[in-house]
Amino acid sequence: CSSLAIGTTTGYGLFSLSSVEQLDQVHKSNEIPDVYIVERLFSSSLVVVVSHAKPQQMNVYHFKKGTEICNYSYSSNILSIRLNRQRLVVCLEESIYIHNIKDMKLLKTILDTPPNTTGLCALSINHANSYLAYPGSATSGEIALYDGNTLKTACTIPAHDGPLAALAFNSTGSKLASASEKGTVIRVFSIPGGQKLYEFRRGMKRYVNISSLVFSMDSQFLCASSNTETVHIFKLEHLTDSRPEEPPTWSGYMGKMFQAATNYLPAQVSGMMNQDRAFATVRLNVSGQRNICALSTIQKLPRLLVTTSDGHLYIYNLDPQDGGECVLIKKHSLLGSGKMEENKENDLQPPLPQSYAATVARQSTVPSTSTMPGYSEDGGALRGEVIPEHEFATGPVCLDDENEFPPIILCRGGQPGKAKRS
């Protein structure tokens, strides 16, 4: 969650998310039009691009050097791509291809997967824990969990009754969140065992299409956004263990009554009563647009980031203690020159109560990005930083300019190959 990649009709762009006030464009390319997939390997110079002009071809670039590392063609349109420092996963409608990111060699092809028209899949960003999750059924909410390192099936998780709509791993690959097409219930499972850990209810009034699920890097929060104007943030905690004794109010009394009643109700009904509500929420200015969310720490404070398909980035403050309604602090335009658009609405609002969110929102000075430790034009990566060697890796991946990505020695031809060395 340290950088943002966007695909447009004219190409693609990469932005650094190290500052609230300023949106820095790290790279912009107009060489390939109509880009609908662009995935960057963390804050490195490796980027994978797919365009509508050649929807069956994946192009891998070193954008700082302006060179193409290689490209691969597949038997049908590429629907999604996921990558970490160990694996690169290409998802088609009825098959999945797993490449070794060190040399782009094809390691495994998972054929005859259930029809997956949206290319729904998730890959753990922790390369030592390279689990892959994808729909195990087109008619039910079954999750197929695959170990991308050992190249073996891990387990199958019966997550929902209806077809899946969203999947997301936490940063360590130890938890997996899921939502179905109904969008009313979000569940969190342990990985690789598949035990249900949490169950959150987004709402019961209407079905929604959840387009984005994301954990915070510390796995304390889970964010869900949909085609509605509301974004929900849930806190991963067992409320009965962490909350103090409630004062003797009518609502508290009724809550205890319901809690006692669950002992005598069927499991399915009692499970619904025990579900936790959203810890924090956001009401967007737009509705009906596809959006992507991220929970990140920017300038040492927790933020919620929302990017919408009309080309805007919204940055909100998140109160990690009290939650509630998140405060919008900045709005950026992604399709212009990358300059920030002022949030005029905040200037017109009356003084807010002295809460955490209100106090942070009124800070007028922010530290310069140049003085922040660990910042570089790569969006936070330290030059020359070496990723520790992993038992499955042939060697460490360096993030400096010259040795960032090992040269491709061999790219095999044929389907899905037709790979070309550039």
**Assembly state (oligomeric):** single chain
Mean pLDDT: 78
Give the overall shape, derived from the CA principal axes.
globular
Largest sheet: 5 strands, antiparallel
Explain this structure:
This protein is mainly beta and 422 residues long. It contains five helices and 30 strands. The strands form seven sheets. The chain has a five-stranded antiparallel sheet, with no helix packed on it. Strands 20-21-22-23-27 form a five-stranded mixed sheet, with no helix packed on it. A five-stranded antiparallel sheet has the order 24-25-26-28-29. The longest helix is centred in the middle third of the chain and has 12 residues, at 250-261. It is globular, with a radius of gyration of 22 Å. The protein starts with a strand and ends with a strand. Mean pLDDT is 78; it is low at 240-247, 249-255, 265-274, 338-403 and 405-414. Belongs to the WD repeat PROPPIN family. Residues 362-373 have a biased composition (Polar residues).
Give the gist of this structure.
The protein has five helices and 30 strands.
